């Protein structure tokens, strides 16, 4: 993941706790989730595709949760996109546009149904690869929350590469949503939230341009190409960090209309920024969202 | 209404001056200062009080390969050895909460403090 | 005779109003000082308002305030009107109350300083409502000091101009 972790914690032992969280996130990447680092659970699962691999107890559980969300979203979010995303390598050293035939070939390896888990073992089909990139940051938020619950920290926020854990708030934490056309500190709106997790998927995070066309990193598991559902970004608010991260990816691929039932199923709310500059907010977040008037977006009123 | 000054006037002025001084006090105890925190590998590495900076200067972090430019009330990445230079492109940080990060060098700069903040407490992206 | 007096009173009020406006206009030449919010001015027009509150009545003083606010609104927009009105109302009530107390312990200077402070408070409140944030109160300490200083100045000027202003009133009202 190689992500930026920014924490703001209040309460006794905040500094020490912040250190523990940073260490945990590092080891999460190294020991569990990275598909690049040899020795991590996911790396070993991929390297031994076709056989059962024993992993840390958490990893198998996370895989199970991802499969559930995958099914609920009809495959819009799928951790078996590993082969496809590795080939595109968007955000990596050698991004490239796969030929049509290659895409067809890679699409065949994307299938959540051939992933089997049992207790703390995981097995994928030969030729498949898992990529937890779409949920890693959300999982990190959940792990951070576990650490905070055991500490004496009263309130705080932990941002893991843009996925945010809001901890200890009944309400009143102002989470800014990045303006897709601005720089890192420009926000297009603010969500006033209590404790929860917030994740955003946008087409501006990792891109590469080839022959005048720009490709972003959120691949549609059905087409094999960057998802195109009319959105620039989706921000999802949910109790579970893993779910908020997975859902933000799924919603980006599904588009506004098709996302609504999925969000409801997970009691999650979302803010959708369309490519046409219109902003749609789900009913449960309506009162909590305020648009930044100088950012140039138009908030669609609820009918 | 003939007299300009009566005894009570001096009292009033004295009281107002005291109230004024009392209101000023929090500022001198750091409540109003704007502080930039430079993180290296996730831990606070150096703090810069931007509200007391009179002249611009640069901070060279050789081990990390980045150069930061500090100005009165602002800080930013001036140059970096990283391939994307996203950190440099973020520009100047001036508001509390503003952040810039350089992944390859594992450095992050965050602005903390400030008296009252209208913007977000944290950003999702 | 009553009607003639009323007309004369209105005429005097008009003159005072115009003088207040003239002073308002002139003091905008005052540059914005560092540390003060842009738009903080010495408030020389308060000289007129105070005189009116002292010699005429609350209604008359408020009339001057309204004239000033409307002028600000017409020339500088709605928010200028709100700011001027909020500050003016608080200021005028303060000065009237202090001036008309049976045994007011305050001299002109005290009333002037108090009403200047009240004026600034009213404007800060209006600004907070207009911008929707409480950060404007960060200016409070500096403004208070400024109010003390300008209050002393306007109070002194009023004392000096008092004979002239009384003469002006006598001219209209005799």
The two chains with the largest interface, and their residue counts, are:
A-B, 32 and 24 residues
- How many domains make up the coordinates of chain C? 1
Strand count, sense and barrel status of the largest sheet of chain A are: 8 strands, mixed
Poorly predicted ranges of chain C: none
Helical stretch count of chain C?
Answer: 6
- For the termini of chain C, the CA-CA separation is 12 Å
Which descriptors would you attach to this protein?
heterotrimer, A: 303 residues, alpha+beta, three-stranded antiparallel sheet, 32% helix, globular, B: 125 residues, mini-chromosome maintenance (MCM) complex, domain 2, four-stranded antiparallel sheet, 24% helix, elongated
Topology diagram in text:
The complex is a heterotrimer of chains A (303), B (125) and C (174).
Chain A: E1 5-10, H1 14-33, H2 41-47, E2 52-54, H3 57-72, H4 82-88, H5 100-107, E3 116-118, E4 121-123, H6 136-150, E5 155-160, E6 163-167, E7 173-178, E8 187-193, E9 196-202, E10 207-210, E11 213-216, E12 231-238, H7 241-254, H8 256-265, E13 269-274, E14 278-281, E15 289-291, E16 298-299
Parallel strand pairs in A: 14-16
Antiparallel strand pairs in A: 1-5, 2-4, 3-4, 5-6, 6-9, 7-8, 8-15, 9-12, 10-11, 12-13, 13-14
Chain B: H1 7-31, E1 34-40, E2 43-49, E3 57-61, E4 66-71, E5 74-80, H2 86-90, E6 99-102, E7 107-113, E8 122-124
Antiparallel strand pairs in B: 1-2, 1-7, 3-4, 4-5, 6-7
Chain C: H1 2-27, H2 46-55, H3 58-76, H4 78-100, H5 108-131, H6 140-173
Helix pairs in contact in C: 1-2, 1-3, 1-6, 2-3, 2-4, 2-6, 3-4, 4-5, 5-6
Give a verbal description of the structure.
- The complex is a heterotrimer of chains A (303), B (125) and C (174).
- Chain A is built from eight helices and 16 strands.
- Chain A is of the alpha+beta class.
- Chain A has two domains: 11-123, Orthogonal Bundle (T-fold); 169-294, ApbE-like domains (T-fold, Roll), CATH 3.10.520.10.
- In chain A, the strands form four sheets. An eight-stranded mixed beta sheet of chain A has the order 1-5-6-9-12-13-14-16. Chain A has a three-stranded antiparallel beta sheet with strand order 2-4-3, covered by helices on one side. In chain A, strands 7-8-15 form a three-stranded antiparallel beta sheet, with no helix packed on it.
- The longest helix of chain A is centred in the first third of the chain and has 20 residues, at 14-33.
- The model of chain A has no long low-confidence stretch (mean pLDDT 93).
- By secondary structure, chain B is an alpha+beta fold.
- Chain B has a domain at 32-113: mini-chromosome maintenance (MCM) complex, domain 2.
- Chain B is built from two helices and eight strands.
- In chain B, the strands form two sheets. A four-stranded antiparallel beta sheet of chain B has the order 2-1-7-6. A three-stranded antiparallel beta sheet of chain B has the order 3-4-5.
- In chain B, a hairpin with a 4-residue loop joins strand 6 and strand 7.
- The termini of chain B are far apart.
- With 174 residues, chain C is an all-alpha fold.
- Chain C has a single domain (2-173), classed as Arp2/3 complex 21 kDa subunit ARPC3.
- Chain C is 78% helix and 0% strand.
- Chain C is globular and about 50 Å long.
- Chains in contact: A-B, B-C.
- Chain A binds chain B through residues 2-6, 8, 19, 22, 26, 157, 159, 162-164, 166, 173-178, 183-185, 187, 190, 198-200, 202, 205, 235, and chain B through 39, 42-43, 86, 89-91, 93, 95, 97-101, 103, 108, 110, 119-125.
- Strand 7 of chain A pairs parallel with strand 8 (122-124) of chain B.
């Amino acid at each position: 993941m190689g992500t930026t972790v920014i924490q703001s914690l209040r309460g006794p032992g905040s500094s020490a706790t912040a250190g523990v969280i940073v260490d945990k996130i590092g080891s999460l990447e190294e020991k569990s989730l990275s598909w690049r680092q040899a020795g991590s659970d996911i790396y070993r699962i991929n390297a031994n595709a076709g056989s059962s691999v024993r992993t840390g107890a958490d990893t198998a559980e996370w895989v199970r949760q991802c499969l559930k969300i995958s099914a609920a979203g009809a495959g819009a979010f799928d951790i078996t996109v590993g082969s496809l995303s590795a080939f595109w390598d968007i955000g990596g050293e050698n991004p490239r546009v796969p030929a049509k035939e290659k895409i067809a070939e890679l699409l065949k390896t994307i299938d959540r149904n051939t992933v089997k888990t049992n207790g703390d073992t995981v097995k994928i089909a030969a030729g498949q690869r898992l990529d937890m990139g779409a949920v890693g940051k959300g999982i990190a938020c959940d792990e951070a929350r576990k650490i905070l619950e055991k500490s004496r920290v009263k309130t705080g926020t932990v941002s893991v590469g843009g996925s945010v854990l809001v901890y200890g708030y009944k309400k009143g934490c102002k989470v800014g949503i990045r303006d897709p056309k601005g720089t890192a500190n420009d926000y297009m709106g603010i969500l006033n939230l209590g404790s929860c997790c917030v994740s955003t998927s946008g087409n501006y995070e990792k891109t590469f341009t080839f022959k005048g066309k720009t490709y972003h990193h959120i691949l549609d598991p059905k087409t094999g190409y960057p998802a195109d559902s009319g959105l620039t970004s989706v921000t999802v608010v949910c109790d579970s960090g893993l779910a908020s991260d997975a859902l933000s990816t799924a919603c980006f691929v599904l588009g506004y209309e098709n996302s609504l039932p999925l969000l409801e199923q997970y009691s999650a709310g979302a803010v959708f920024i369309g490519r046409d500059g219109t902003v749609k907010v789900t009913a449960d977040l309506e009162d909590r969202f305020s648009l930044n008037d100088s950012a140039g977006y138009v908030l669609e009123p609820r009918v | 209404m003939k007299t300009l000054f009566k005894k009570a006037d001096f009292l009033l002025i004295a009281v107002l001056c005291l109230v004024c001084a009392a209101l000023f006090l929090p500022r001198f105890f750091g409540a109003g200062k704007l502080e930039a925190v430079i993180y290296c590998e996730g831990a606070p590495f150096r703090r810069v009080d931007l509200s007391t900076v009179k002249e611009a200067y640069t901070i060279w972090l050789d081990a990390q390969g980045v150069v930061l430019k500090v100005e009165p009330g602002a800080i930013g990445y001036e140059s970096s050895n990283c391939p994307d230079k996203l950190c440099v492109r973020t520009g100047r940080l001036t508001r509390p909460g503003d952040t810039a990060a350089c992944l390859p060098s594992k450095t992050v700069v965050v602005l903390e403090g400030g008296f009252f903040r209208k913007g977000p407490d944290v950003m999702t992206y | 005779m009553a009607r003639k007096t009323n007309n004369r009173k209105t005429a005097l009020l008009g003159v005072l109003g115009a003088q207040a406006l003239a002073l308002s206009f002139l003091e905008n030449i005052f540059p914005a000082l560092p540390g003060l919010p842009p738009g903080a001015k010495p408030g020389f027009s308060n000289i007129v308002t105070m005189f009116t509150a002292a010699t005429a009545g609350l209604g008359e003083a408020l009339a001057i305030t309204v004239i000033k606010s409307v002028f600000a609104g017409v020339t500088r927009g709605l928010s200028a009107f709100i700011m001027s009105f909020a500050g003016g109302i608080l200021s005028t009530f303060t000065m009237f109350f202090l001036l008309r107390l049976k045994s007011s312990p305050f001299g002109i200077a005290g009333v002037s300083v108090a009403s200047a402070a009240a004026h600034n408070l009213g404007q800060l409140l209006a600004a907070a409502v207009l911008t929707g944030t409480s950060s404007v109160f960060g200016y409070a300490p500096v403004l208070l000091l400024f109010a003390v200083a300008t209050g002393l100045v306007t109070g002194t000027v009023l004392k000096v101009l008092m004979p002239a202003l009384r003469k002006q009133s006598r001219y209209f009202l005799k």
